[in-house]
TrEMBL record:
Single Gene Ontology MF annotation: double-stranded DNA binding
Lineage: Eukaryota, Metazoa, Ecdysozoa, Nematoda, Chromadorea
InterPro entries: HAD-like_sf, HAD_sf, P-loop_NTPase, PNK3P
GO-annotated biological processes: DNA repair
Pfam families per record: PNK3P
PANTHER family the record matches: BIFUNCTIONAL POLYNUCLEOTIDE PHOSPHATASE/KINASE, BIFUNCTIONAL POLYNUCLEOTIDE PHOSPHATASE_KINASE
Extent of the signal sequence: none
Coiled coil ranges: none
Protein name, entry field: Bifunctional polynucleotide phosphatase/kinase
């Protein structure tokens, strides 16, 4: 919206950002003696912060001598700017000495919410692993059947699905299945190790990534992710069960989200607050 204003909707008049300001009442202010309710959100304050503008609440702007001129406020827990500034300062793997790609055949099961970087991660290793994804194959059963076939043919596999709970990770619930087959059991029946890679990404971070993806996907070409919304992401977290070695994994690896930007414009957008809620 701001870029549109600057580029074409201000009559070719230059904008002095340092002299500009934004006034809004969605400021993330908390309840106090003068304010019986907290603000419904902090999107106005975040809008100003994203643009580097001075921000005022209506009370601060219109009644500068009011007792409400300075009030406590909350910002979202997830600060995307920290990731853009420190993205090169950490190893994305835990433990740090993780070996991938593996020289021997294996099965890797990815676990993580939508918009946490699973598919981007998988594509880095597409020359070494067959990537199996339910967005393409449509059903859990199809994913399992293809995994079995690929492993039997001697190739390694990455299962690029959310795999949020035990019922999804371990037991096939499809009514057409003969019952009870497990990814880990499948790997062990073929004497192939099975590792689990967990993507360490909070609800707020996932929602941010999803909004960022919508913004930078200018041509609308990301068909696999076009229907992912807040409800889909929250549903993952509502049913999430953290994987354990007891499920049959040979190793569990945690992956920290490490952004990789195509250009400086994408980095700038990612560093903005894109989600206005302070409750996540």
């Amino acid at each position: 919206m701001w870029d549109k204003l600057v580029e074409s909707e201000n009559g070719s008049i230059g904008i002095e950002r340092s002299e500009s300001f934004y006034v809004g009442d969605a400021a993330g202010r908390t309840k106090n003696n003068n304010r019986p309710k907290s603000d419904h959100s902090c999107v106005d304050r975040l809008f100003a912060m994203n643009l580097g503008l001075k921000f005022y609440t209506p009370e601060q702007f219109f009644f500068p001598n009011s007792s409400q001129i300075e009030e406590d406020f909350l910002l979202p827990k997830f600060n995307p700017l920290q990731l853009t500034e420190n993205s090169s300062d950490f190893n994305e793997f835990e433990p740090e000495n993780v070996k991938i790609p593996n020289s021997s055949q294996e099965l890797i099961l990815l676990v993580g919410p939508p918009a946490c970087g699973k598919s981007t991660f998988s594509q880095k290793y597409k020359d070494n692993y067959v990537i199996i994804n339910q967005d393409e194959l449509k059903t859990w059963q199809n994913c399992f059947d293809k995994c079995k076939k690929v492993l039997e043919n001697g190739s390694s596999v990455i299962i690029d699905n959310t795999n949020r709970g035990l019922d999804i990770r371990i037991t096939i619930r499809d009514s057409n299945c003969g019952g009870g087959a497990k990814y880990c059991d499948l790997a062990k029946s073929l004497n192939i190790p099975c590792r689990c890679f967990i993507f360490d990404c909070s609800l707020a971070h996932s929602l941010h990534n999803n909004e960022y993806r919508k913004i930078v996907d200018e041509n609308g070409g990301d068909e696999a992710h076009k229907n992912i919304n807040e409800v889909v992401i929250k549903t993952f977290f509502a049913g999430y069960k953290e994987p354990k070695l007891e499920e049959g994994f040979d190793e569990i690896v945690k992956i920290r989200f490490k952004p990789d930007f195509q250009n400086e414009q994408h980095r700038r957008i990612y560093g903005m607050y894109l989600i206005g809620s302070v409750n996540m």
